[in-house]
Amino acid sequence: MSTAARFLRDNSLTLVFGTAFLLTLVGQAAAGIAEANNQLVAADLQPVSVADYLTGSDFAVDVTENWQSEYLQFFLYIFGTVWLLQRGSPESKSLDRAGTESDREQKVGSHATAESPAWARASGVRRAVYSRSLGIVMALFFVGSWFAQSISGVAAFNAERLRDRQAPFTWSDYVLSADFWNRTLQNWQSELLAVASMAILAVYLRQRGSPESKPVGAAHTSTGVEG
Questions:
Q1: Does pLDDT of 62 surpass 80?
Q2: What's this model's pTM, rounded to 2 decimal places?
Q3: Domain coordinates of the chain in residue numbers?
Q4: What is the DSSP string of 193-214?
């Protein structure tokens, strides 16, 4: 197998979903500018260019409000599954493994192997940070994208208010407004529903060959087993 073929095989999950993300982002932009210009023309206003739309608040708020909910989902799921369990689900750890587990189980400190990351062999703050680095980064992405949503959201909201000759909102007024929380909560509820559905449906349903499913013949009560 050539180096290029091996690279594609070894990274196919990231490459496929990354490419799909870019394609859908382009599609969203195309549909968004068409919708925005239809509304502007209907209101006897000048249509915007592609560059103006892509750098404007309408596109930014639509993108960031989805990003923040996705990262919230992963952040809550990563930290929640340290302690929370679901009997029979491959999305859960075994029922006797709730918690952060021992150093031996986690292969840190003196229990690290030659192939373990350097920070897993470290002690003190470095090990503590690395031991929680995935959840920390997801939390930072969530906070950052949520803040970006609030900034772009207040700009888009005020643009509509100014067109209607209404006084603009301050940022603090906007993050307490119904518009902001309507945008936020409609995304949160869908992400939380998806996680809960996956956790319980994977107890009884199977997808042969997927690590998100138990083996087809595994008992419904088998917990923390991946196919």
A1: yes
A2: 0.86
A3: 1-55
A4: HHHHHHHHHHHH---TT-TTS-
